[in-house]
Amino acid sequence: MKVEEILREKLQRIEDVINGKEPDRVPILGATAVWHGAYAGYTTHEVLFDYGKCKSAWLKVARDFEFDTFTVIPGLEGMIYVVAFLKQPDISASARFILGSTHLALMDVFTKWPGYELDKNAHPQFIGKEIMKSNEYDQLIEDPLNFINRVAMTRINKKLSNPGSAEYNSALAKFGVELAKFGAFMADVSAELAKLGYPTVPMAWSYAPLDLIGDFLRDIKNVVMDLYRIGDKVKQAIDAVKPLVVESAMISAPPKEVRKQVFGTEIVECFFPLHLNEYLNPKLYNEFYWPSLNEVFKEVVALGLTPFVLFEGKHDAHLETLKEAPKGKVVGVFEKTDPRKVREVLGDRIILVSGPPNSLLISGTPQKVEDFMKKLLEDCKAGGMMIWPGVDGGISRDAKPENVKAMIDAVKKYGKY
Amino acid sequence: MSLREEFVKALADLEEAKVLEITKKRIESKEDPFTILEDIRRATEIVGKRFEEGRYFVSDLIMTGEILKQVMELVRPLLGERKAESKGKVLIGSVEGDVHDIGKNIVIALLEAEGFEVIDLGVDQPPEAFVEAIKKHNPQVVGLSGLLTEAIESMKRTVDAIREAGLRDKVKIIVGGGRTSEEVRAYTGADEWADDAAVGVRKIKALVGVE
């Protein structure tokens, strides 16, 4: 088969599932931050800070394993930058993740990196910090974009602490340069992947409004306490930032006219990693988290995008609420909720994504992986599903290659329709 | 309802303002601070139970920890040199390569409220740090915490180091964090595992032999 046909076949699988049809077999969406580097013999520091090494490791995995897509996200949560730079859409769209290089350019206080704050082979980590005080909600509510730029950005980034200073201007220029390098790198890898028969499904960026406040402004622990103490203020803040995350989706999606031509597909996924979902009890979830998130889902679907949602942790207690989401339009990756339970409660209302947990890919054997996959596919593949290996955060640095291979073989064996 | 019962109920129901108000009243009335500690323990047990029953979630544990912190700030100065009888000693830390600590800190808050002595090693602690601390503090239980999937290998290395130092029989080990499972327990060679804080506290109590 020609490379273009292989690429088309892989893309078709994903399109079919998203369009509610059963494809020839279940597609496998590989994703990782550093596993490709470990596989190619690099430290996490090397693979995160050296695009040449990252690219060669990325392509090595693409050649050695048969995923349907294989995505490397060499960064950490950075949605606040997409929002802050909304007025400059090309910068904004490429600023979705905090990269090693942009961390060094701006010295954000959220993240820690191998070779700098951490050991060379450690995984980079988003730790977070309180940026906005509880008595500053009114400023955020009054003009969120202004507050995020004038106040939050100067506190998030040590190098932007003094607006107008030489250090400030230089840091922003450096940040722009690093984003351009990253954009060129991703475009380059995408073209190389296409030569190997790997499609790239375009992604747009949005977020749960309350997570934007929790992750980047108040910190997780503080925003939880705010819900008990000053819930009305939080609600107003959610309403204030909601239009910003919708606008983010709008500006980061490739325009309709070019989608087919550039990516070979009309489908654009819109990424939503959920963070507070597992933390909140149903009362808080239903009052603060879900209504605004579902409104964003609806707006994103109206834009012609497909929400691609990581339901981190256990989502069991909140599954019923997904009946209110746009039917058959939302892709859900469930980290710790049994996919059988998702099927039972939601049927085909949600486009199901599941996969082996990293504990199995790390500590299991190929036989155990095959057994797991056989059962998963037999129980859940009817009606269409996708596999996201290392369902808890993408493939771990320590996943054993033979187990990843066994996972792919099992999908080929038991994932056919 | 007596003031004591009111206090336990308000704390278990996470009524922050009411708990603090009653605490101040009890302190003003010169009540024995150890009675307050006893009530904190009772309320914390109710919180843990509600969590396991699926009525409380992580948000509720975070709020519990926050209220406990404020109550303890009021009560601690009254305790002086006297010490409550310790239920047991627990050494806990996030393993090498992992700098997350929300889960670990919730566990510590709950354990202390239940009357345990806790030694917090902090985050990103190499195996040797656990070994040294076991020798120094002689804990009954060692808690290895981590959020990352990469923490699993670190937990295994830490258990191995404890074994190699000849200390494995002296301590019970529990691995904890969102990505732990029975599979991870077996792989790391720990005695127990917990992917949420309340279950972790219950299992630590069982390991120590306190019900």
From TrEMBL, chain A:
Specify one Pfam family.
Answer: URO-D
Question: Which taxonomic lineage does the organism of this UniProt entry have?
Answer: Archaea, Methanobacteriati, Methanobacteriota, Archaeoglobi, Archaeoglobales
One Gene Ontology term of the molecular function aspect: uroporphyrinogen decarboxylase activity
Gene3D superfamilies recorded: 3.20.20.210
Q: Give the GO terms filed under biological process for this record.
A: porphyrin-containing compound biosynthetic process
Q: What is this protein called?
A: Uroporphyrinogen decarboxylase (URO-D) domain-containing protein
Q: Domain Uroporphyrinogen decarboxylase (URO-D) spans what residues?
A: 272-414
Do you know which InterPro entries this protein is assigned to? Answer: Methanogen_methyltrans, UROD/MetE-like_sf, Uroporphyrinogen_deCOase
Signal peptide coordinates = none
From TrEMBL, chain B:
Family as reported in the entry's similarity comment: Belongs to the methylamine corrinoid protein family.
- Domain named B12-binding is located at 87-211
Q: Which residues form the B12-binding N-terminal domain?
A: 1-87
- Swiss-Prot/TrEMBL GO biological process terms: homocysteine metabolic process; tetrahydrofolate metabolic process
What keywords are assigned to this protein?
A: Cobalt, Metal-binding
Name any one GO molecular function.
metal ion binding
What GO cellular-component annotations does this UniProt entry give?
A: cytosol
| Record-given protein name | Cobalamin-binding protein
Originating species: Archaeoglobus fulgidus
